[in-house]
């Protein structure tokens, strides 16, 4: 499902890029963002207070920066390994490794959604050692 959404989003972004070739995208998500997460009903993380802070730098259709996941179960900053934005839609992939109780955890965070002014919202998947946790999120620009 995540790959299908990404293919559709990427196809839309490529079409938009072709349509406005040489033009700056209308959406600019550069800045600091604070997001609140709502875990999917039935997920083992449901109800866990979770915040994402994002430091985003946009260059045309490319997003760079970092994502910081803050929760009782994890506090981890990760670089954006792939990010795209265009015509109000975007996706971000971040990856990192967390340590805890003598164990190393492979972390992958995927976000996609829509941007409108000083607001972002969408869905996401946090993958911890291969186990997916789905959520919805909304963010406000803090600077």
CATH architect. name: Beta Barrel
Low-confidence blocks of residues: none
**Could you please say which CATH topology applies here?**
Lipocalin
Please provide the ordered H/E string of secondary-structure elements: HEEEEEEEE
Global geometry:
globular
Helix proportion range? 10-25%
Please work out how many helical segments DSSP would assign. 1
Structural class: mainly beta
- Give the name of the CATH superfamily: Quinohemoprotein amine dehydrogenase alpha subunit, domain 2
Major sheet: size, sense and barrel closure? 8 strands, antiparallel, barrel
Mean pLDDT: 86
What would you report as the Rg, rounded to the nearest angstrom? Answer: 15 Å
Terminal CA distance reads 33 Å
CATH class: Mainly Beta
Q: Any idea how many domains?
A: 1
Hey, roughly how much beta strand do the residues contain?
over 45%
Beta-strand segment tally: 8
Q: Order of strands side by side in the largest beta sheet?
A: 1-2-3-4-5-6-7-8
């Amino acid at each position: 499902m995540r790959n299908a959404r990404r293919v559709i989003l990427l196809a839309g972004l490529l079409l938009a890029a072709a349509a406005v070739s040489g033009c700056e995208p209308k959406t600019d998500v550069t800045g600091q963002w604070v997001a609140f997460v709502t875990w999917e009903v039935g997920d083992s993380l449901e109800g866990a207070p979770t915040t994402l802070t994002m430091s985003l730098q946009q260059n045309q259709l490319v997003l760079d920066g970092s994502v910081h996941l803050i929760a009782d179960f994890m506090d981890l900053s990760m670089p954006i390994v792939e990010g795209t934005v265009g015509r109000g839609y975007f996706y971000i992939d971040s990856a990192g490794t967390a340590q805890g109780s003598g164990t190393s955890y492979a972390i992958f965070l995927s976000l996609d959604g829509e941007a409108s002014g000083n607001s972002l919202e969408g869905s996401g998947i946090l993958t911890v050692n291969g186990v997916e946790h789905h959520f919805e999120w909304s963010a406000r620009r803090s600077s």
